[in-house]
């Protein structure tokens, strides 16, 4: 698996004229090697010369965590007294174009630029982004398992099994996080719980607001689930419920009907060959026509895989045509400042047989007795 991915990376490097790819902390590393580095102050770096052998440079104390794969990379642990920048520069050799992974600490980028003065620099994602965006069958299966686990938590929310009224958003968020882990996730990446007017901020951080009966509560949560090969895969789902057995206020119910139609239209538009921006437009057209255009002020979706946000982005200006294996969220929203917010999100995979939505939890604005 990793040897095959590395081969595809080398082909992309050749196509783009990149002489060496330098991969530090972030999702490229586990995708390529199965090893997930902690974001430490020591340098971790996979050095991939286009034509030579790959080497994983790690601090000695981290080396025991690496599962060695001699057919993929050599392991080069360094001592506290060694300068890893000099080591990486030596392994890279004389290069004119270097690509470096997007989440590398700036301190290492600056030092490497000094140590390799003849290199022109590119973002690593120009090489790895388009490759990681297209999932193989095992990756789609891993995303599906994560989505099914998130769906089970969504069903608990919609079934009234997660108490809401009288609890703080922060309490409910922690509860959802525990349930994500109980359903098989290795870790929780986020659990947004935004009630009443707080939901008008799309990335509201769950706080001490106490949920009241009649509040619309927006819950957007996801985690990472372990998979074969060492890299975990992410879930991400949003559902809204009305707390305390009350019906949704009329203006909210009207907006939700539009949102639901827009989300379904965008999913249906996600056909192989369709540009990503057309999927965004499919949702936006319906929300605009209903007069809510100004209240839908973010992109329709993002790719998902080892990282919760990655290529391809479902946004105006991204003309990338969908291919089988592209996995992304479809999550339009409508927000009314000071009053309420609504969003509906599923993960969808483009396939030759049409759009494959991985999330199946009820799409309705469910009233819960909780
Ligand atoms: Zn989400
Ligand atoms: Zn999302
Ligand atoms: Zn639906």
Helix content: 25-40%
Secondary structure tally, helices = 9
Q: Write out the strand line-up for the largest beta sheet, numbering strands in chain order.
A: 4-3-2-1-5-6
Give the low-pLDDT segments.
none
Question: How far from one another are the termini?
Answer: 46 Å
How do the strands and helices of this protein lay out in sequence?
Blueprint: H1 2-16, E1 20-23, H2 28-33, E2 45-49, E3 55-59, E4 74-78, H3 84-92, E5 97-100, H4 106-115, E6 120-123, H5 125-133, H6 137-158, H7 169-182, E7 187-195, E8 216-225, E9 233-234, E10 237-242, H8 250-269, H9 276-289, E11 301-303, E12 310-314, E13 327-330, E14 333-336, E15 340-343, E16 346-349, E17 356-357, E18 366-367
Bound molecules: zinc ion (3 copies).
Could you write a compact summary of the structure shown?
This protein is an alpha+beta fold and about 375 residues long.
Can you describe this structure?
Helices cover 32% and strands 22% of the residues. With 370 residues, the protein is of the alpha+beta class. It has two domains: 2-131, Creatine Amidinohydrolase, Chain A, domain 1 (3-Layer(aba) Sandwich); 134-367, Creatine Amidinohydrolase (Alpha-Beta Complex), CATH 3.90.230.10. The strands form five sheets. Strands 4-3-2-1-5-6 form a six-stranded mixed β-sheet. Strand 11 and strand 12 form a beta hairpin. Helix 3 (84-92) crosses helix 4 and helix 8 packs antiparallel against helix 9 (276-289). The longest helix has 22 residues, at 137-158. The radius of gyration is 22 Å and the shape is elongated. The protein starts with a helix and ends with a strand. The chain binds zinc ion (3 copies).
